Write the structure tokens for this entry.
Amino acid sequence: MRRLTGGLRETLQRGRIVGMSGLDRGGRLALLSQRLDERRRHDAEFDVPRESLEIIAERLTSGRDLGTAINRLHLVWGLTRVPLTEVVAETVARDLAGGGTRVDAIQSAVSRFFGVSPADLVSDRRNRLITWPRQIAMFLTSGLTTLTPAEIARRFGQRDRDMVMRAVRRVEVALADQPSMREMVDRLKQAIQEAAGPAPQPLLAGALSARSNTWAGEAGRSRADGTVVRHYGHAPAAEEQRSGPLAALGRRRRASADRQAAKVAVESDWERARVKRFSRVRGFGILTRGEGTPDVYVHASTLRRCGFTELRRDQVVQIRWGRGPKGCTAAEIRPDDASPRQ
């Protein structure tokens, strides 16, 4: 350092500011290949053709989106075993790259409706005049796009994913209580769809519809649009034999939910209860049996086992409950007009 000139020594001491650019196309392909090799260590049968990787590298630039694309391709392949052709890769890339455009359309429609600017929706302002439109925009983004809560949080100013989930729950409660709120959301959805065009068909829905003839009799019932509704804990034998971390995780979650439901021993006869609240996002709800009695916890797995898909606020049902990890827990549930069981 003593032999350096004064100017050079000062530059080295202060440091130099340099610009950083994103990965070029070759770097993105190398990153995709690395992520693919990591997946193949756990699932040797999983493979993506070079042409599909090139499409993803051409459409996506963020390293996070490139890793998410590989994860989604592995999810599609693990559930359907369809070849990961260029069409599948194009759909995945469109969902990830096109999500920003669709979020912009949602933010623009909401800002016009409430008289605020799109910049306010992604800002740190906590004024109620800004917070409520922002929560509605998050709710619409959750329902009209394929983005995860974490991805939605990044689109709204690098917020936490829990904030997105709280916003969705708050709007769901308002929709259940206020008919005018439902009308407003419907008008916003119509304006967004007219401005952005029809939403693309979700990739998994199309892939599952190709197997509906095989799964309809074993795994669930087929809807009118061709997609298959998988009943919890009743997957076909071929599905149970599949390997891979995602398939194993799904089996562990189904088994865990079934074990939790089996732990509840019935301690009461059929009683009437009213739905206090229920969230499909969180997967559970609270029932009330009347004044002076403790509330009853109900899990989504219990609803599926008893033939329900969801519960509405203030809906009246009949339950048999017992003691579980959450206290008073519903073990069986049926509609209020059901005939008494023997």
Residues 20 and 62 are 13 Å apart (CA to CA).
